[in-house]
Amino acid sequence: MASKIDFATALDVRRDDHRPLRFLAEAAHLWLDLARFDRARESFEGLLALAPNSPVGWLGLGSVCLAEGNYREVERFAKQAGRVPGADANTMAQAATLRGRALLAGGRLREAAAALQQAAEVDRDGPAGDVARELLAQMEQEPPPPSPGAAR
User: Fold this and answer.
1) What's the first-to-final CA gap in the chain, in angstroms?
2) Over the stretch 35-85, which tens digit does the pLDDT of each residue have?
3) Around Cβ 97, how many Cβ atoms within 10 Å?
4) Which one-letter DSSP state was computed for residue 58?
């Protein structure tokens, strides 16, 4: 039976030095920006192996799924990010905003608006709340797409 690998110890990541984790997170976001979703996913999964109680990996995996159009998985990862011990208002709002984006992309407008409103309320003065409010404002300005099967 294989022994469980302690990646943090293997990579000499000290608890008081988060630089290696930060570099890994930045690399993962870069892969995501470059639309290299396989590499981004691997990097976010590596981040979770090293820091399972960090919401960054969960939110990152949700972002990868959003970019790939896998909206159901986005919700699962967003929920996991919100369950991380010590999740703050910004984390909760980022998770709700990510969920709102997935619902919006999936055409579930009412649910998207509710998730984004939740994010705006949770992080009233923070950046994640600002993003949610911007998305809500865009939803109000743009007419909803026609429903499938609607008369033209």
Assistant:
1) 63
2) 999 999 999 999 999 888 889 999 999 999 999 999 999 999 999 999 999
3) 27
4) H
